[in-house]
Design goal:
The structure is a single chain. The protein is 34% helix and 23% strand. With 340 residues, the chain is of the alpha+beta class. It folds into 2 domains: 6-198; 206-336, Bacterial OB-fold (OB fold (Dihydrolipoamide Acetyltransferase, E2P)), CATH 2.40.50.200. Strands 1-2-3-4-7 form a 5-stranded antiparallel β-sheet. It has a 5-stranded mixed β-barrel with strand order 8-9-10-12-11. Helix 1 (6-19) packs parallel to helix 5 and helix 2 (31-41) runs parallel beside helix 4 (71-81). The protein is elongated and about 75 Å long.
C-alpha cells in the first residue's frame, strides 16, 4: 500500500522545521480519538489528507497563527459548533478548519473567527499549508523563537505571496474547487449546495410565506397560532434558544425561539424574520424588558458597592427571563422574513 499523497508535503515541512530549530510535533493521534471523530461526524467524513496527517503528527509547532491542534481537542471544538467544516487549528478565537461534507476529495482549508465575518478559503488543500510553511521556513520568512516557544512571521506580505502561489499551483493541478472563496458559516442558506445537502438544509422550506396577522392583532385576539413578520430589536439567550423581542410597527412581541426552530440561524439582532407562533398559555411577558433593565442595573450597582450578596439576589430572578417562561409566544419555525 502506497504512502498517502500528503506525506511528501509533511516530509518537506518536517525537514524545514528541523533546520529552523523548531521542536518535533506531537503525535500521532490515538486511533481511538480518530474513531471518535469518525463516529461523531458520520455520515459525513474528513478528507483522507487530514486523517493521514493525524496518523503521523498532531499540533505542528512551526506553523503561523492560529496554533494547530490535535484530533481530540478538535472534536471538542467541533461538537460545540457542529459546522460543515472541522477545526485543525485554533487560537484566540481564530480557526483553520477542513471541509467536512462526505467527499474525500474536498480538502479545502478555511480561516474564520468569532467576529461575524465570513469564513475565507485559506489553503486549497492541506498539502498547500505544509508546502507553504516549508517554503517560508527555508526562506527565513518564518523564524522559530525558542526562548518564547513560538513561530514569528518576519514578513507577512512575503508569507501571503507564498500562500497565493501555492494555491495557484494547486488549482492548476485540479485540486478540489469548492466554488467559493468565502462563506457565512452562520447562514446555511448561503452555503454551497454540497454543504446544504450534507446537512439537510431545506432551501424550499426557508422561503418566506407572509404574515397572517400583525403583532398587535395577535396580542389582542385569542388565536393560538399565527405567523408574524418583524424586526428583532432585543435578543438574549443560550445554546438552548433565544429570547427575541420582535417589532413589526404595530407592537412588540417577546418570543422564545428554541434552537431547533432556527435551523437557518436567522435569529440575530436587527434581522427581519418570519415566525410561526404558538401562543404561550398563562401570563404574557408584559413589561419584562423594563424588568430586565431594572435587574441589570441592580446587579451593576451592587457590584460597584461590593455587595456580592445583593448582586446574586438580583441575578437569580434574571435567569427566569432567559427561557420560555417570560415570553408571549413560542416559535415553531423561524425564517428570513420580508415586510409587506
Amino acid at each position: 500500500m502506497g504512502r498517502p499523497a500528503i506525506d511528501s508535503s509533511i516530509d518537506r515541512y518536517l525537514s524545514a522545521a528541523e533546520r529552523a530549530g523548531a521542536p518535533e510535533p506531537d503525535g500521532p493521534a490515538l486511533e481511538r480519538d480518530l474513531e471518535s471523530v469518525r463516529t461523531a461526524v458520520a455520515p459525513l467524513r474528513l478528507s483522507d489528507d487530514v486523517i493521514a496527517m493525524w496518523r503521523r503528527l498532531e499540533s505542528p509547532p512551526a506553523m503561523p497563527y492560529p496554533s494547530w491542534i490535535g484530533a481530540r481537542l478538535a472534536l471538542d471544538f467541533w461538537e460545540d459548533e457542529r459546522l460543515p467544516i472541522f477545526p485543525i487549528a485554533y487560537e484566540s478565537h481564530g480557526y483553520l478548519s477542513a471541509g467536512l461534507v462526505g467527499d474525500e476529495r474536498e480538502g479545502a482549508i478555511w480561516s474564520w473567527a468569532y467576529d461575524a465575518e465570513p469564513a475565507r478559503l485559506r489553503f486549497r488543500t492541506l498539502a498547500v499549508a505544509f508546502d507553504a510553511a516549508a517554503d517560508a521556513l527555508d526562506r527565513r520568512i518564518f523564524q522559530w523563537r525558542e526562548e518564547h516557544h513560538y513561530l514569528e512571521v518576519l514578513d507577512h506580505d512575503a508569507w501571503e505571496a507564498i500562500v497565493h502561489i501555492r494555491n495557484e499551483e494547486a488549482a492548476a493541478d485540479e485540486a478540489f474547487d469548492p466554488g467559493i472563496d468565502s462563506v457565512d458559516l452562520q447562514s446555511p442558506l448561503s452555503w454551497p449546495e454540497s454543504w446544504q445537502l450534507a446537512f439537510g438544509v431545506d432551501v424550499a422550506a426557508a422561503a418566506p410565506r407572509g404574515a397572517t396577522t400583525t403583532i398587535r392583532n395577535f396580542l389582542e385576539a385569542s388565536a393560538t397560532h399565527a405567523t408574524i413578520v418583524g424586526t428583532i430589536v432585543g435578543l438574549a439567550g443560550s445554546g438552548e434558544g433565544s429570547r427575541a423581542t420582535v417589532d413589526d410597527g404595530s407592537g412588540h412581541l417577546v418570543v422564545w425561539c428554541p434552537a431547533t426552530a432556527d435551523p437557518y440561524f436567522v435569529v440575530r439582532i436587527r434581522n427581519v424574520v418570519e415566525i410561526d407562533l404558538l401562543r404561550r398559555p398563562g401570563s404574557a411577558a408584559g413589561k419584562s424588558e423594563t424588568d430586565i433593565d431594572r435587574l441589570h442595573a441592580a446587579i451593576q450597582d451592587a457590584v460597584v458597592r461590593g455587595d456580592m450578596a445583593a448582586a446574586q439576589a438580583s441575578a437569580l430572578p434574571l435567569v427566569a427571563f432567559f427561557g420560555p417562561g417570560s415570553t408571549d409566544a413560542i416559535a415553531l419555525a423561524v425564517r428570513s422574513g420580508r415586510v409587506g
